[in-house]
Design a protein that fits this description.
This protein has 2 domains: 65 residues, no CATH class; 128 residues, no CATH class. By secondary structure, the protein is mainly α.
Length: 194
Amino acid sequence: MLLSEEWLGVYILALTGGVLYESTVMYYIANRGNFSPKQSIINVLRFPVLYAVLLGLLVNMFGISLPTELDLYWAYFKGTYVVIGMMIIGCSLPRLSQLVIAPKFLSIVFAAQFIVWPLVALALITFDKAVLQWFEPEIYKMLMILAIVPPAANITAFAAKLDLNPEKAATTVLLGTLFALFYIPAVLILSGLY
């Protein structure tokens, strides 16, 4: 919604880095709470998202053109991506006996997600504008958008699957999403990117 159609592919490629991090490093660390290092690596290698990203990169790298019929499904996917994330949270919450607000955990996640990472992104943008001048203004917008979104809903799914305090994860994602409703527009306006 915030960028023109021509930048969608670049944004998806930028998003791929986050998906790979979540599917490898984060999922490995989460698995280490219950499994040995070897079993944790095996669990990561069984994670389907890795193969979806790899397949997408290979299709792009080899210039394989996909049937135009898939364009219709792509248009539907763009609209449902956020809805699916909210459904993950919604499906996780009813199975929980209670929402758990852990102030220390919540403050660490919020500080990292809503203060540290946006400041790092803003510093990179400022440095590029002043020194490198590699990127166009649309890339700055993408970087800020990626830096200010709330914690991903799939964290709740990971926590539930691995039995790692799913109540705490679901509460954190829910509160982060509610906070982001006000935080994202405020940051975009105050940063001058919109």
